[in-house]
């Protein structure tokens, strides 16, 4: 090899050594720094070592993980902290993306030494942690659904609107939050899911339009011949109800309640009730009171007419009613066929003169007089007379209270009870309730008598025959010169040939104590009254013989001798 060739080869080798050294030197320089022009989201990191770049980015961006991420929907806002919600930054990956790190690629080395550009910060998302954080805020966006309501109040329609239920759509909101974080935005629009109320405004609109408003648009007028009755809108509203049935609100009118409410108003239709034939005293005998055929508006016909007019408008709110004729249950023919009534039981008792007796016994006889008792009916003296008050025409008289004679309004009425009890006894009627006095008074038949006290003791008997009866009652007033008397007669058709009483057998006589009552202005002196037991039977006669017997017994208390002292 020539000397020139060696010189050329040496020069080439030298150049290669020089270039190679420069290349290696450039590698080590570039491998320890980020490209000169590199930046991350506006933060310059060019020329820094990878570790330095990471530290720079961490210092700049770590505080942002403590800045709230705001979730909002409408007027509701709330925050989550990114660092607590699984959100973070990958600084190392970001530095690598910016060009940091070692490379033998000449182009990379050249880029590091002369180039670089803006890159995005690498963000990380732990979706499970983010979901937990978002779910924890869901309750703040929840709105309970409220059903629409409608009702009648004071004759008017009162309604409230519906509110749809609202809840966070967690899946959609998590996706939005992830995207917002990845794009570096601090606000997250919460996705809401709504559920319509079970009772909607549209349902209310429908029932108001088609039922409620027409119902109270005016009165319903029911007509019969030339007369009419009016049902006011307020009454219609009061009897109406609005109820949810499936996907509708159904309006209904309680015509049964409305029928009851309008009992007085129906009088305007001038309808008449059917009346059974009955009986009265006239000219000293029992005569038939003819039955009356009734014209009635039944509840069913009333309901049909009201239902037709209730939600109509204009003239259609006036409708004729269909009435029906009602025949009496007990006809004039049936009553007349009985023929003439006779007295089947009567009794008279006497009483000493006292103005209160004339008044109270007269009032009782007058009230009972004319009472008709149909077969199977029970007569009650308390129900017939009512409470013995001044307002009902009674005055104070003597009654037995705890073995003493004391004054009370209506005193003496027990004599009416005794007299009527005996009339029913001899008519053969069933004894339903009676109680003799606790003390014996000789103006009454022993044992066969009754006392009454309003609210606790009654005298009741049942017409247990096949024939109607009418009770006659009257008094012969007492005066200073004569005793008075009270008489009751029961007129009917006889079932028995006769009804009698056996002898009233007294036994077991005994006496009470002697008492002195001091300082009681209401005290009444009382003579001793002997106590004893009495037994007797009621005998029913038919075809000349006794066909039934009923035993009775009563024990009288002994009345104390009472002396009054001031």
Give a brief description.
By secondary structure, the protein is of the alpha+beta class.
Question: How does this structure look, described?
Answer:
By secondary structure, the chain is an alpha+beta fold. 28% of the residues lie in helices and 31% in strands. It is built from 14 helices and 36 strands. It has a four-stranded antiparallel sheet, with helices on one face. Strands 31, 32, 34 and 35 form a four-stranded antiparallel sheet that branches. Strands 2-1-6 form a three-stranded mixed sheet, with helices on one face. Helix 5 packs across helix 6. The N and C termini lie far apart (177 Å). About 3% of the residues have low confidence.
Structural class: alpha+beta
Strand content: 25-35%
Summarize the amount of helix as a percent range. Answer: 25-40%
Strand order of the largest sheet: 22-30-29-23
Rounded to an integer, what's the Rg over CA atoms?
55 Å
Shape: elongated
Largest sheet: 4 strands, antiparallel
Mean pLDDT: 89
- How many DSSP helices? 14
Number of E-type strands: 36
Distance between the termini: 177 Å
- Which segments are poorly predicted (pLDDT under 50) over 5 or more consecutive residues? 14-30
């Amino acid at each position: 090899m020539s000397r020139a060739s060696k010189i050329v080869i040496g020069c080439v080798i030298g150049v290669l050594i020089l270039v190679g050294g420069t290349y290696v030197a450039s590698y080590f320089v570039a491998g320890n720094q980020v490209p000169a022009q590199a930046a991350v989201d506006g933060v310059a990191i060019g020329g820094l070592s990878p570790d330095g770049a990471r530290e720079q980015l961490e210092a700049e961006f770590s505080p942002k993980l403590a800045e709230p991420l705001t979730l909002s929907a409408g007027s509701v806002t709330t925050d989550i902290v990114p660092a607590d919600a699984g959100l973070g930054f990958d600084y190392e990956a970001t530095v690598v993306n910016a060009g940091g790190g070692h490379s033998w690629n000449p182009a990379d080395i050249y880029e590091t030494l002369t180039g670089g550009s803006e890159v995005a910060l690498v963000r990380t998302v732990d979706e499970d942690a983010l979901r937990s954080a978002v779910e924890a805020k869901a309750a703040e966006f929840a709105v309970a659904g409220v059903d629409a309501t409608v009702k009648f109040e004071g004759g008017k329609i009162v309604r409230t609107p519906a509110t749809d239920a609202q809840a966070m759509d967690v899946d959609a909101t998590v996706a939005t939050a992830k995207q917002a974080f990845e794009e570096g935005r601090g606000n997250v629009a919460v996705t809401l899911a709504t559920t319509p109320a079970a009772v909607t405004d549209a349902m209310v609109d429908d029932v108001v339009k088609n039922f409620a408003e027409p119902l109270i648009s005016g009165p319903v007028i029911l007509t019969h011949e030339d007369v009419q009755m009016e049902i006011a809108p307020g009454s219609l509203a009061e009897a109406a109800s609005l109820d949810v049935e499936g996907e509708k609100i159904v309006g209904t009118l309680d015509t049964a309640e409305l029928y009851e409410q309008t009992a007085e108003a129906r009088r305007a239709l001038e309808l008449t009730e059917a009346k059974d034939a009955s009986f009265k005293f006239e000219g000293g005998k029992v005569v038939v009171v003819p039955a009356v055929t009734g014209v009635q508006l039944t509840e069913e016909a009333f309901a049909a007419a009201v239902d037709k007019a209730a939600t109509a408008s204009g003239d259609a709110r006036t409708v004729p009613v269909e009435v029906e004729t009602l025949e009496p249950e007990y006809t004039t023919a049936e009553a007349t066929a009985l023929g003439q009534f006779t007295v089947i039981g009567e009794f008279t008792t006497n009483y000493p003169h006292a103005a209160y007796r004339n008044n109270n016994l007269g009032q009782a006889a007058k009230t009972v007089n004319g009472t008709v008792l149909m077969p199977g009916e029970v007569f009650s003296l308390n129900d017939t007379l009512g409470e013995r008050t001044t307002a009902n025409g009674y005055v104070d008289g003597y009654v037995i209270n705890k073995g003493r004679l004391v004054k009370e309004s209506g005193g003496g009425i027990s004599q009416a009870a005794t007299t009527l009890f005996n009339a029913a006894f001899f008519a053969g009627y069933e004894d339903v309730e009676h109680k003799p006095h606790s003390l014996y008074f000789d103006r009454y038949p022993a044992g066969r008598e009754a006392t009454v006290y309003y609210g606790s003791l009654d005298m009741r008997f049942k017409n247990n025959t096949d024939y109607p009866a009418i009770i006659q009652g009257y008094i012969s007033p007492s005066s200073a010169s004569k005793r008075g008397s009270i008489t009751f007669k029961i007129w009917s058709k006889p079932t028995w040939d006769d009804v009698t009483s056996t002898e009233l057998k007294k036994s077991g006589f005994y006496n009470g104590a002697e008492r002195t009552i001091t300082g009681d202005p209401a005290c009444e002196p009382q003579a001793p009254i002997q106590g004893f037991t009495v037994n007797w039977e009621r005998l029913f006669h038919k075809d000349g013989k006794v066909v039934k017997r009923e035993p009775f017994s009563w024990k009288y208390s002994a009345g104390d001798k009472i002396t009054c002292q001031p």
